[in-house]
Amino acid sequence: MDYDTPLFFHVMSYAMEAEHDVIDMVSGNPDWGSPPGISDGLHEYADLGGADFQYPPSEGLRELREEIAARRDVDQSQVVVTCGGGEANYLAMARAMERESGDEFILTDPVYPYYPGKTKMLGATARFVATDEDGTLSPEAVREQASENTAGIVVNSPNNPTGAVYDEETMREFVSIAEEYDALLVSDEVYDHFDFSGKFTSALSFDSDNRIVTNSFSKTLAITGFRVGYAIFPPELVDVAKTRHMLTNVATSRPAQYAVLHALRETTPEYHEENRQLLKSRVETFTSALDAAGADYSEPDGAFYVMARFPDFPGTLSNVEKLIDEAGVAGMPGEAFGSSRDDWVRFALVTPEVEEAAERLADYFG
Ligand SMILES: Cc1ncc(COP(=O)(O)O)c(C=O)c1O
């Protein structure tokens, strides 16, 4: 099979090899620090040794699964603890294919690039539905692409890269389209703690056998290196997913799961609120500078990305390299996210240097 290396790796290494100072706005690695429960949990774990250093249950530490199940109001048997949201999405999409009720995935354009990558890896075909310029995804447009060939519909709210957050009615519609076409809705909710609009609705709000919700602690607890996420399956779909998880990974890292459990118990809502406030102020700083640079931009309702379109400067890989070389700011080319955002560049607001980056862009284009 011909796998495409994600463009992300190329841009990251180009920026890292630059000899001058480059502000990294490529990756989605939070810079605001994890809650103290993470390092406390790791220290506590380090002293356990013995049996606690051996394989955890494949589907995840029992207490962590119980904690997740209680928070999400599902039965713990429906929860699989995965190696991040990435594996959770893979298990969910693989499960949709295993049902043999279609071999197509409905994806959005723009799209988080790992979904089309996984679609290809699973031998499925992608059908793209364009979002509006502000990232709104119309259920009607999704319905038009749905057919008996649809294995799954993959949505992400709050959205990477557009920052859109789908409201309750929209999510309800996605679930019912999946039901109508005997497909699975895969709802990737890894940015659920980064909703600035208050309208985020989890697909779990709608009782259905046709939806899988995926999530991760990577962003929520600023631990992208730990690799702990989870998927919540309908009861009759979960066992096969647990088997695939076991055969692929054996289990998810035990110390990481232990620390996440500890942090979930200790972390207060203020931690998340502070991060949202920080991001909101970064969005303001950054978009004001984009105004000064004469750029169009997305105003995110959630997640931590801003897309910008500069006059006569399409968001191609070569222009992104030019920005690295000449402005000292690294973003992601819009073409990485599908065909509809070729003209745009995505910037991740996960650096304390957002203000400096904004000034560099304003100077460069202003
Ligand atoms: C929409 C989306 N889903 C999933 C992931 C993967 O998350 P994880 O690090 O938990 O695998 C990311 C990471 O950037 C993401 O943006």
Automatic annotation (TrEMBL):
GO biological process: amino acid metabolic process
PANTHER family in the record: ASPARTATE AMINOTRANSFERASE, ASPARTATE AMINOTRANSFERASE-RELATED
Organism encoding this protein: Haladaptatus litoreus
Family classification: Belongs to the class-I pyridoxal-phosphate-dependent aminotransferase family.
SUBUNIT field: Homodimer.
Co-factor(s): pyridoxal 5'-phosphate
CDD domains from the UniProt entry: AAT_like
Repressor in keyword set: no
A Pfam family it matches: Aminotran_1_2
Classification via SUPFAM superfamilies: PLP-dependent transferases (SSF53383)
PROSITE patterns: AA_TRANSFER_CLASS_1 (PS00105)
Keywords: Aminotransferase, Pyridoxal phosphate, Transferase
EC number: 2.6.1.-
Endpoints of the signal sequence: none
Name of the protein in question: Aminotransferase
Enzyme class: transferase
